[in-house]
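STRUCTURE REQUEST FORM
Protein name: histidine kinase
Source organism: Poseidonibacter ostreae
Requested output: structure tokens
Priority: standard
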Amino acid sequence: MIKILFILNFFLISLFSSSFDKVYTVAFLKDWKPYYITNNKGELDGYVYELFEEISKKTNLKFEYKIVNTWQEIFELAKNNKIDIVPNIGITKNREELFNFSQPTDTLKIKLFKRKDSYDITKIEDLKTKKLGVLLNNICNVLISKEITDNKIVLFDLSRAISSLTSGELDALCYPDSSLNMKLKELSLENKIVSFEKPLIEVKRGLGLTKENFDLLPLLDEAITDLKVEGTFQTIYSHWFSQKDINTISQSTFYKILIILVIVLIILFIYIYGNNKLKEQYKKQKKLEKKLNSAQEIAKLGHYSYSFNKDLFVCSKQIDEIIGIEENSVKNVDLWIKCIHPDDQQRVALYWASCLNKGVDYKIEYRFINQKTKEIIWVVALGEISRDKNHNPITMFGTIQNIDERKKTEEELTQAMMVFENTNDGILVTDKNTNIINVNKSFEITTGYSLKEVINKKPSMLKTDLNKDSFYKKMWSDLNTKGVWSGEIINKKKDGSNYYEFLTINVIYGINKEVNGYIGIFSDITQQKSDEKMLMTQSKVAAVGEMLGNISHQWRQPLSVISTHATGIKLKLELEANLEKEEICESMENINKQVQYLSKTIDDFRNFFKGDTNDIQEFTLKDAFSKLEQLTKDSLHNNYIKYETEIEDLTLVLNENLFIQALINIYNNAKDAMVDNIENSDDRFLFVETKVVNEKLEILIKDTGYGIPLNIIDKIFEPYFTTKHSSVGTGIGLYMTNQIITKQFNGQIFVSNIEFENNGKILSGAEFRIVLPLEKK
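Status: completed
Returned output:
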């Protein structure tokens, strides 16, 4: 849960800071006057450029311009997320899939143009049989239909279209009013080509933001509003769109307008001078209202007022969204109660009535049912009641906040705390300096220490001398590199007794990946370790009979040699035959060799059975398999089993005796399977192969005993499971192998039935695959 809160905090910080660090790509149309202008030097100008530069100053956001040739190219870049903002674009329904739009900044009028001397064209209906020109990638190409003209001519260039209109090749032309007027002025044709008075359509225009940049919209809207309030926007707009009107008015009219403007300016000056403070206050109020609205959106908070006389609520849109009702719907107490969860209605009504009677403000948490989505939403409602001189309620003002996420978080925290307190596993939490800050009840029961006794102390108070320094070094190495460590450890209780625990430690990270603390979760496995030790002993004892048989067979030959030499010498002495010194020495040498062999056999047997399970040391894989072969070769040979190996030249850091014991159990089961199932001794094989795969050691052991029945293959690693008579098998061999591989060596063991070819013959049997991690050097 702590991690979730940190991640949530990090997300919120990132959300509000990333907008100011990112450089946004702004698409700029190469040439579409007066909106977009690019001169021969590549410098940008025009209405869009001037306005957007002012917006960028207001927002403090970073931008870079990308010059494009056509609107089609802009749409392709937006689809592929290659641009972030189009600074001026028509606000249309079909473009909402690509863009979020700001508030409108201007209106584009689409008009029809004709030659001034075309007296036969006075209205749109006159164009039915006329040649009407449109540009390919222009909105006019969509607007002009068969209803307007039967002769729509599509052109690719505006200059060519104007030339065709002036020469008579076209009778009329459809194009945006402001752009064509500027082009006509450049060509000195403003007195030869005129527009129809009424536009075909008016298209509102504004900033277009690609969908992933929707969070910029409030910021840009606020900047546009500020520019309008300051008058900067009107200055820019007039500069680019009012030139034609000013240049075409007569001189006398100009002076009349000038006199009127002077009078108006004097009046305005007096008005502004007298109301300057009021205007400033209004601007501040509007800004505060916007900021308040943004804050309410973020906090999921809405405000309301209620008239007791009219039984009427007036509330902000945030409350409408919480309740799921239309903004213009009539809201009264009955509707309000209806939207409250049935289980909370009576409680809220009684609480509200109590507050009215006592004349106190109220604060209460309850649940709404959203009328649109039917979602249950927790809210906290606050209210203040104003009264008349007779103490009768007049109006109630208040706020309602969506606290659903907080409630869910509280519920999760409650559940987490219940788990923390009631789990059977001990839990210990420390700060970043490993000082204990909390433990649960299971920790206290297992260790004998209370929370009060361990608070602000180090977990090392539980440490024993049984864990080597290299053990703790490896633990901290894993925590520092991986953020987690798990394994078995021996710790000390308050009464001084030792206990085994399986411990998992996780690092608690902050939002900037700094270490904030550690949490350790452990289970007491002392009894389990005791049981494993007993089973280990039983497993070894079970193997004694097998091993004694091997030893008796290995001793038979050397004892025969010793007996032969001793009998020979004795016989010659009894017959008083001549005994050469050299002959006696040779016999004694042979006897000594056989005695040494017998001694080595005893040592191998003793070393196998005396091993300490905690004794970890380096040994070579080949040496281990050589010892394994010495312990099992006679048993395999006596049962006519051929033994083939491919062993890697590797060094392992494990308990060698446990390693050998784990494999002996597999060997013995393979031997028994082949003896029981394979009558033809020529088909009895035991294959052993080792290899390194992905920095792990794989050991493959396969036999030719026809495999393991499918109905028991999943049970063979269970304790005391056996298919043999109790006088023959104990059912703990493969269980101990599994425990050694998985628990002691942190490895894996798998078994499957396979078919394979050997010397041109198809054989089948069981294959054990052991996977062990290799110690990194």
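Reviewer notes: The longest strand covers residues 761-773. The chain has 22 helices and 29 strands.
Form closed.
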